[in-house]
Amino acid sequence: MTTIGDPTGVTVQDAILRADKVTMRFGGLIANREVDFVIPRGGIVSLIGPNGAGKTTFFNQLTGMLQPTSGEITFEDTSLVGRTPHEIVELGVGRTFQNIRLFGAMTVLANVMVGHHVRMKASWWGSLLRLPAVRAEEEATRQRARELLEMVGLSRRYEEDWAKNLPYGDQRRLELARALASEPKLLLLDEPTAGMNPGETAQMTELIMRLRDELDLTVLLIEHDMKVVMGISERITVLDHGELLAEGKPDEIRANPSVIEAYLGKGATTA
Amino acid sequence: MDPLMRRAIITGLLGGAAVIHIGLIGMIDAFQSRDTIADVLTLGALLPILIALLIGWRSGGPMRAPHIIPTGRRAVALGALGGGTTGLVITALALFTTTIDVRWILSNASPSLAEELWYGQGAALGSVLVIVVSAAAGAAGAALHVIPGTIARALTVGGITAILVALMEPFVVAVLRNIGLRFLEGIFYAQGGLTLIGFVLVFAITAAGTYAWATRGRETKQRVAAMPPDRRRTGKLVVYFVLTAFLLVLPQIVGSRLSEVVGTVGLYILLGLGLNIVVGFAGLLDLGYVAFYAVGAYTTAVLTSAASPAFSPELPFFGALPFVIVAAMLIGLMVGTPVLRLRGDYLAIVTLGFGEIARILFLSAWAQPLVGGAQGILSVPPPIPFGRDPQSIYYPILFFCILAAVAARSLQGSRVGRAWNAMREDESVAEATGINTVTYKLLAFGLGAAFGCISGALFATKIGTVFPVSFDLLVSINALALIILGGMGNIAGVIVGALVLVGLPELLREFSEFRLLIYGMVLVTMMLLRPEGLLPSRSRRAELHEREDAEDQYEDEAGEETGQPVVTT
Questions:
Q1: b or e along B283-303 (b: 16 or more beta carbons within 10 Å of the residue's beta carbon)?
Q2: What is the ipTM of this complex?
Q3: How far does A147 lie from chain B, in Å, by closest CA?
Q4: Torsion over CA of B265, B270, B272 and B278, rounded to 10 degrees?
Q5: Long-range contact set of residues B15-18: C-beta below 8 Å, sequence gap at least 24
Q6: Domain-wise residue ranges, chain B
Q7: What is the assigned CATH class of domain A7-270?
Q8: Closest Cα to residue B30, out of B515, B413, B473?
Q9: How far is CA B249 from CA B242, B243, B269, in A?
Q10: In this complex, which of B418, B435, B539 lies closest to A86 when CB atoms are compared?
Q11: What contacts B484, CB < 8 A, 6 or more positions away?
Q12: A115/B425 Cβ within 8 A
């Protein structure tokens, strides 16, 4: 239990996001209880914990889809509490979903272009009149979307296909491209390798690290695959029953007895 | 029993039931007055044959559970079996009406019905004839599955067009006279329908055209796409020019009566384009759209009519229009704001309520000093410089239809249209992707309201009077039905939908007794056979045809047409 202490006190020079005593209640159920959390800028941080530990609830509070019952979340000195999801996207927080949620009956390219919506300026009357500036912006967005598709490794061949017709792994990549299109500083990935085979998982891990470097991102991910978590994360936070259980470097978490007991199981010590 | 045969017989019996139904309600008798092919085939006689054809098409088609696709002769035989069964039922009906008199309860179950069903022949010959003709029609229907898809489609389109052209005899004749092609009248038309030569010609020309487009269309498209941009642009301009010229002279070509119909279709196109923004683009099911139509009509009437109880300095139509649009957009926001949190069914019910509230408000004693209650507002002037006659009111309607279509098109392909689409697909993800769903919902309601109110304003000046009864639920339903039928989310679909659902019934006034029945049948048939509408938008098609679409895509890539089914039993 030594690592718990005061996790916000961990020597973080430059935190991009801070959560302070975040609590989420659904009636009698407490999904998150006074969770403290810090993400250092430029880092890759993982949030792990058994099913029902409150990871996705926590994610949803960071992205404004849920409002915390109490507590404070600040992103680059701006409070996220009370903001709508689209405002938070505008501030620079992008996300993907645990169960892939693409706009299925829109083309692959359009999905990514929707992601860029928040960085576009065209007004409704500008679009109505097809002003030259609007058309130029539209074209630039299309180009940017193509670049992003290439960056996540989706072939140009697919760009006019329906998003829902893509193979599973490519849908994950597309969701990632859509999130990147909003030009986030902080990228939240909810189980990015769920349902992937080991080969695809390795590719995805490699992709996440490459994107972080190329796009100056900070990444927070929820992940079940311990190999991924241990391989990619610079710091790991463990939630259990809605509460913070441990925080630290991968090695520390691996060695932490309470974490092992709550989550990893017996085999993990030898892993 | 073999499941396919069982299905053929059951389908055939259903077809028989359909014939019994339309026979007993007097439809066959009423349609007897019109010829499809003069002296050969009346419309009344055609109906049972068409039903048998459809039955054959169903009977010979692929079966879902168990999954069997009949091929070749087997399919045709099954079609004949289905059609023949229908023929048997028709014979039974005819025999029944000649032997037992039930006219005291079913006034149409008369010997004259039997005579019509038996093609004017006696019981023995007539019965054989009916069964043979029905079986043949069934076989022909089933054969559509057997022959290559492109040919089947060409034949279907040709047949439908020929029947429609025959139906519209009075109008086409009037048009031919107006444009000085009177000599064609003698070739194509006899009193009440097409001549045999005319029918064959129309059928052959449309079928050949459809076939050519199906086989060469892709090639032509590619050739156009391969042209240098400036030439393509010139080509486009020429097409637009010809189209504009055609639309401009249309009222002179079609004459006054048909212009009236075209004007009504135009009003519904406007309504459809507006509702399409709300329902088709943004996915907000609005059943109270008539409210905006009413607001547009009433605001125009109040501002322009000298007979309006309130507001005396009368504005000209185009002077009033900006106020009308602003008023409607405000109402749009008023309706939109309280329903922001509602989705799907709940939204539909609340907007339905709003539509009724609007109508009742305009009817109420409370609003009477402003809008005249049940007496309505009379003498709404036509828009200067246009007159009220159908041939000149057509122009402002055309102008606003084009404006609305262009506006809708620009929005559709823009940041705004994409945001609406995303919202329709998944509202919470759209929000989480950075779309301000509140703004975009209100924008959809506001713009939809603007389109609807322009339609209402034109309606007021076209009719010249405004009464609350003009704004009942049926307007909302019509507008919604036409965008669904035409193809939700697609602008061309709206136009086609308005032509079919509003234009055709206006043209077939003589059968207005059966109008709602046909209307309902068309909608049910469409939803079963082609739920995405006549001209669907790409995404709508994708939603409703998941599996087939994936296959289609690969076919498209290979540049092939849908071939014939090859699976054997």
A1: bbbbbbbbbbbbbbbbbbbbb
A2: 0.90
A3: 19
A4: -170
A5: B15/B51, B15/B52, B15/B54, B15/B55, B15/B82, B15/B83, B15/B85, B15/B86, B15/B89, B16/B85, B16/B86, B16/B88, B16/B89, B16/B90, B16/B92, B16/B93, B17/B89, B18/B51
A6: 3-223, 252-479
A7: alpha beta
A8: B515
A9: 11, 10, 19
A10: B435
A11: B497, B523, B526, B527, B533
A12: no
3-state secondary structure at position A18: strand
CB contact under 8 A, A117 and B410: no
- Please write down the HEC assignment for all residues of B494-547: HHHHHHHHHHHHHHCHHHHHHHHHHHHHHHHHHHHHCCCCCCCCHHHHHHHCHH
State the Cα–Cα distance between residues A176 and A211, nearest whole angstrom.
10
Q: What is the pLDDT along chain B (569 residues), one digit of tens a residue?
A: 788 899 999 999 999 999 999 999 888 888 888 888 877 888 888 999 999 999 999 898 888 877 888 888 889 999 999 999 999 999 999 999 888 888 888 888 888 888 888 888 888 899 999 999 999 999 999 999 888 888 998 999 999 999 888 888 878 888 888 877 777 887 888 777 788 888 898 999 999 999 988 888 778 888 877 878 888 888 889 999 999 999 998 888 888 888 999 999 999 999 999 999 999 999 999 999 999 999 999 999 999 888 777 776 788 888 899 999 999 889 888 888 888 888 778 999 999 999 999 899 999 888 888 888 888 888 888 887 777 788 889 999 999 999 999 999 999 989 999 999 999 999 999 999 999 999 999 999 999 999 999 999 999 999 999 999 899 898 999 999 999 988 888 889 999 999 988 888 887 777 788 888 888 888 888 888 888 888 877 766 666 665 444 444 444 433 333 333 334 33
Handedness of CA B389, B391, B393, B397 (dihedral sign): positive
Choose among A261, A222, A211: nearest CA to A63.
Answer: A222
Give B-chain residues touching A63 at CB under 8 angstroms: 432
Say if CB A222 and CB A98 are below 8 A apart: yes
Q: How far is A202 from chain B (nearest CA, A)?
A: 27
Pick the closest to residue B306 from B469, B464, B471 (CA basis): B464
**Alpha helices (H) along B386-472:** 390-412, 415-425, 427-432, 437-463
Supply the DSSP symbol for A53: S
Task: Tell me phi and psi for residue B392, to 5 degrees.
Answer: -105, -30
Three-class SS of residue A52?
coil
Q: What span, in angstroms and rounded, lies between the C-alpha atoms of B405 and B536?
A: 16
Give exposure, A155-194, as e/b (b: 16+ Cβ within 10 Å): eeebbebbbbbbeebbbbbbbbbbbbbbbbbbbbbbbbbb
Instruction: Search chain A and give the residue with CA nearest B429.
Output: A101
Count of other CB atoms within 10 angstroms of residue B61: 21
A271 touches chain B (CB under 8 A): no
What stretches of B194-276 show up as alpha helix (H) in DSSP? 196-226, 229-275
Strand partners, B377: B466
**Distances, alpha carbon B219 to alpha carbons B77, B222, B223, B558, in Å:** 37, 5, 6, 13
In this structure, what DSSP letter does residue B380 have?
P
Q: Which helix (H) or strand (E) holds A112?
A: helix A108-115
What residue segments make up the domains of chain A, in order of their start? 7-270
- Give the chain A residue nearest B421 (alpha carbons): A106
Q: Write out B11-67 in H/E/C secondary structure.
A: HHHHHHHHHHHHHHCCHHHHHCCCEEECCCEEHHHHHHHHHHHHHHHHHCCCECCCC
Q: What is the rounded CA–CA span in Å between residue B482 and residue A182?
A: 37
